[in-house]
Amino acid sequence: MKQTLIAERVFDGEHFHHNQAITIEDGRIVSFDKASDVEPTVLAGTLVPGFIDVQVNGGGGALFNDAPSIEKIETIGLAHAKFGTTGFLPTLITDDIQVMHDAADAVAEAIALKTPGVLGIHFEGPHLSVPKKGVHPADFIRRISDEELAIFARNDLGTKVVTLAPENVAPEVIRALVECGVRVCLGHSNADYDTAVKALNAGATGFTHLFNAMSPMDSRAPGMVGAALESQAAWCGLIVDGHHVHPASAKVAIAAKPRGKVMLVTDAMPPVGMDDDASFELFGTQVVRQGDRLNAVTGELAGCVLDMNGAVNNSVDMLGVAREEALRMASKYPAEFIGQRQRGIFTIGAKADMVLLDQDNRVARTYIDGQLIYQA
Q1: pTM, whole model, 2 decimals?
Q2: Which domains does the chain have, with CATH numbers?
């Protein structure tokens, strides 16, 4: 099926264009020529590349850890599509080995069935640091075993991301994970600077929610944060909700890192896409929503009710980031992190994953593979 869209403004990943036509066929962009053999659909607003979120725990009332299934993944994906997310990694936080198997099977099924938006899986744990566990259950934090390595080595999971604490996983194991196609991120870690650098040298390429649940940077102890900011190659996920990271700290990180190495993430939980302030249960602990903040009753921050379009707007409003750059932080840069450079940009041959923003920068439409998934 071929279709042509003409938008008032189009952001192609680098520049804005006015009254730009985009022709789509078989889920990919085939032309920017205004001339087309099909009647165009004219869109009021700004068409931008779809957002890619590499850390999504839940949404639409569903939590991925809670009996993982393709139905849960579909619910989460549709909830986030309302906010412009066209690609995401369902994220499993630290859990029992059987839940890990179930999560992998659910993602494999979703990918086989081409479930809209599903790009792979993110295992956030269980090989973390107890002192920096946050709301991850200490009872499930453990050393890596052959059974977990076998899950991570599966070749039917799309993009595979594993967050681990390098003080608990040896460099040779990190190297083995990378060799079997895993993108290793460092996080929930109390590692010192030298240990973090050794993990980077072994092939780790990212840091999970920079500043949060990791050893801080000090004058004589750079810690995990110092290693993240110093690295020219590693990507850093950043939660811009005004609660997880102070705006000044976020500004410092963006200024310190090379362009393209800071990407927006949501760390989203079940309330995303829900209108009420209902609490939910996480490993037997109640998590309470108060506006745009989630806290366990024990006090810890417990993920977010942040969505990707909210993260873009917060980056502009709270951090003073240019809108073009904020859009890249939500699309092009995470696409590069997961090695899918045909996403996050508009160019001939690119995936037709697109978001139409209205004049108030709210999501009006979301397209995945050229198909309209959500309309306000």
Answers
A1: 0.96
A2: 2-48+347-375 (2.30.40.10), 51-337 (3.20.20.140)
